[in-house]
């Protein structure tokens, strides 16, 4: 992966300003990817930024504040409402592979990127069909609503 410090960023993008924003949040790794990283951006291109948060999981209350706050601050810094922020730990393995192959490292260490890449692209994630994922979600909802007066389904042997 190329480092943004070793590469020219797109016109109007200040590496120092981006780093300042990113370092204000619990971000271990930040990668610019997509057309702005490959040099194929045009006037309508959005900014794609992948991050890995340090010790912050989506189940924690602080996650949304950090994620959406960072997205808003990046939009302000880049002077664009078209900023797509991606948590690299939560995206698909295929997208992660593309990010690691073509992205520009904004902050973080190459060894951390290597570890993330191995975690996200080795294919070790379980693959389930959409139907299996839906059934699991329904089962979780049913379990959650078990003590509610009106059940989510008529009975436990439902037609799916």
From TrEMBL:
InterPro entries: NT_sf, Polbeta, TA_antitoxin_MntA
SUPFAM superfamilies from the UniProt entry: Nucleotidyltransferase
GO molecular function, one term: transferase activity
Key word Transferase present: yes
Assigned keywords, A-Z: Transferase
Stretches assigned to the Polymerase beta nucleotidyltransferase domain: 17-109
Record PANTHER family: NUCLEOTIDYLTRANSFERASE (PTHR43852:SF3)
Pfam family, one: Polbeta
Protein name in the entry: Nucleotidyltransferase domain-containing protein
UniProt KW Transferase keyword: yes
CDD domains in the record: NT_KNTase_like
Organism: Natrarchaeobius chitinivorans
